[in-house]
């Protein structure tokens, strides 16, 4: 491994595509610490792609290979424990060496249920090769240093009484104070720049979410989490006030894709609340590009990009986007063809949305029906489904129990059709209008959510079934009636 250059600059993102290979070496690996490793890849489009690989019990090595579009940051996870993170260059083979002491350390903390995490200093979780080796080796030194976050999602960041001008000034003042603390710190030049990039992403996101964060403060203070209750009296953030963030730093700086809050930055840049190019007088570059391709990642995953979409990308200044989305859709199309015959999606009844749920469950009157609202991108949903699968051939094995799974079109079609063959039950994939109606009908506050239908056909939302043991107990009781 090369020596660390603490005074180097954060490198620029790379706008290219390629097949990337990541070899993760778990040093002093023991199988009891986990047999599968996960790599969660955060893309420059603000999305996340998960990959799984088996760890070789002899060598402690797990290998991942995938299409990469642009620079990404990936998190290495073993047995639900964070082993480290790494920036990856597209088309490159990167070797990552994980100190298993870090895995054992996190497991120990969880076992002992300690409330405060303390790290040995310095503590190197991971060592890296490749284009971004220096950045990765600095980034993976755990030294218990301050994060310098806006902490905007605590419910206490903004005061819902704030006017538009007051809120914008609050964001600006908070940013300036934190940026000054970073500048005055004893960090190396590289670490200062890393923390400043993350702060800028954070501040840009806070400004873009001005209306939401003030409403969040109201709900936090008043414990009003029923989103059917409309909060009144919060003056919308005005573009003229939001513009203040553009005067603090260049929101078009491509290095903002290299901060750890990249997904927050991308969402803020694509926000429909403000015309950022106009406010920042941006004629071309990153922000305009991100806004132009917003929605394209989901369309590519669903093999839904059109000729008009590709024509629009062809006209863009940066040829990277056309190349990336052409490859992404081609890959998704090939993967879809491979799983199409293995998966079965039920035909959604052709009835008005007001009658949809009754039509879905009508064939099963006299049986117990458990309806699971889920999506492929929902980690708790996947965990709950995985916990239920073995029970369908043991404790909950019954011809009188019907499992119905409802997802929507935010579940990428390839991922969806790859997963459902391993989930016993009936699968429906609703459009957004149908999904929204059922969520409103049952007052669904998030997923997973469950509706229990008894043998008489009566039904009720049962989000207490997020307690898995209660779900099992209740279903057994219903079957015995």
Description:
This protein has helices at 100-112, 133-139, 164-184, 189-208, 210-222, 239-242, 262-269, 276-279, 286-292, 296-301, 307-314, 320-339, 356-361, 379-388, 413-419, 432-442, 468-480, and strands at 17-27, 36-42, 48-54, 61-69, 72-78, 81-88, 93-99, 123-124, 126-128, 141-142, 368-373, 401-408, 426-430, 449-453, 459-461. It is of the alpha+beta class and 481 residues long. The longest helix is centred in the middle third of the chain and has 21 residues, at 164-184. The termini are far apart.
Keywords:
five-stranded mixed beta sheet, 37% helix, globular, alpha+beta
Label the structural class.
Answer: alpha+beta
Number of strands: 15
Largest sheet: 5 strands, mixed
Q: Rg, please? A: 24 Å
Distance between the termini: 66 Å
Strands in their spatial order, largest beta sheet: 13-12-11-14-15
Mean pLDDT comes to: 92
Low-pLDDT parts are none
């Amino acid at each position: 491994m090369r020596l660390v250059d603490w005074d180097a600059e954060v490198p620029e993102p790379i706008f290219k595509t390629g097949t990337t290979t990541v070899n993760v070496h778990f040093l002093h690996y023991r199988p009891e610490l986990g047999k599968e490793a996960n790599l969660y890849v955060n893309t420059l489009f603000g999305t996340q792609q998960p990959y799984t690989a088996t760890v070789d019990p002899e060598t402690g090595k797990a290998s991942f290979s995938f299409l990469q579009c642009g620079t990404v940051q990936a998190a290495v996870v073993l047995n639900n424990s964070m082993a480290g993170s790494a920036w990856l260059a597209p088309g490159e083979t990167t070797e990552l060496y994980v100190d298993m002491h870090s895995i054992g350390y996190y497991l120990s903390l969880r076992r002992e249920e300690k409330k405060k995490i303390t790290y040995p200093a310095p503590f190197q979780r991971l060592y890296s090769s490749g284009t971004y080796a220096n950045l990765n080796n600095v980034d993976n030194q755990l030294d218990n240093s301050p994060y310098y976050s806006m902490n905007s999602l605590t419910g206490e960041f903004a005061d819902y009484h704030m006017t538009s001008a007051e809120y914008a000034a609050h964001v600006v003042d908070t940013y300036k104070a934190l940026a000054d603390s970073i500048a005055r710190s004893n960090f190396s030049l590289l670490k200062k720049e890393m923390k400043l990039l993350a702060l800028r992403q954070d501040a840009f996101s806070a400004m873009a979410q001005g209306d939401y964060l003030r409403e969040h403060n109201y709900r936090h203070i008043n414990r009003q989490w029923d989103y059917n209750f409309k909060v009144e009296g919060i003056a919308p953030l005005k573009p003229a006030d939001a513009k203040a963030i553009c005067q603090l730093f260049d929101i078009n700086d491509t290095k903002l894709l290299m901060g750890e809050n990249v997904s927050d930055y991308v969402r803020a840049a694509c926000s429909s609340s403000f015309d950022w190019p106009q406010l920042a007088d941006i004629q071309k570059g990153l922000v305009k590009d991100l806004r132009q391709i917003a929605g394209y990642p989901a369309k590519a995953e669903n093999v839904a990009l059109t000729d008009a979409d590709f024509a629009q990308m062809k006209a863009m200044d940066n040829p990277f986007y056309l190349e990336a989305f052409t490859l992404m859709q081609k890959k998704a199309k090939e993967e879809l063809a491979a799983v199409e015959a293995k998966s079965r999606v039920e035909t959604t009844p052709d009835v008005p949305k007001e009658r949809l749920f009754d039509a879905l469950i009508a064939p099963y009157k006299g049986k117990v029906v458990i309806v699971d609202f889920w999506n492929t991108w929902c980690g708790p949903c996947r965990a709950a489904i995985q916990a239920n699968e073995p029970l369908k051939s043991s404790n909950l094995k019954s011809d009188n129990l019907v499992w119905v799974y409802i997802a929507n079109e935010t579940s990428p079609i390839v991922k969806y059709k790859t997963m459902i063959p391993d989930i016993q039950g009936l699968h429906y994939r609703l459009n957004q209008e149908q999904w929204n109606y059922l969520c409103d009908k049952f007052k669904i506050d998030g997923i997973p959510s469950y509706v229990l239908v008894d043998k008489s056909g009566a039904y009720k939302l049962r989000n207490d079934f997020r307690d898995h043991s209660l779900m099992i107990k209740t279903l057994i009781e219903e079957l015995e009636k």
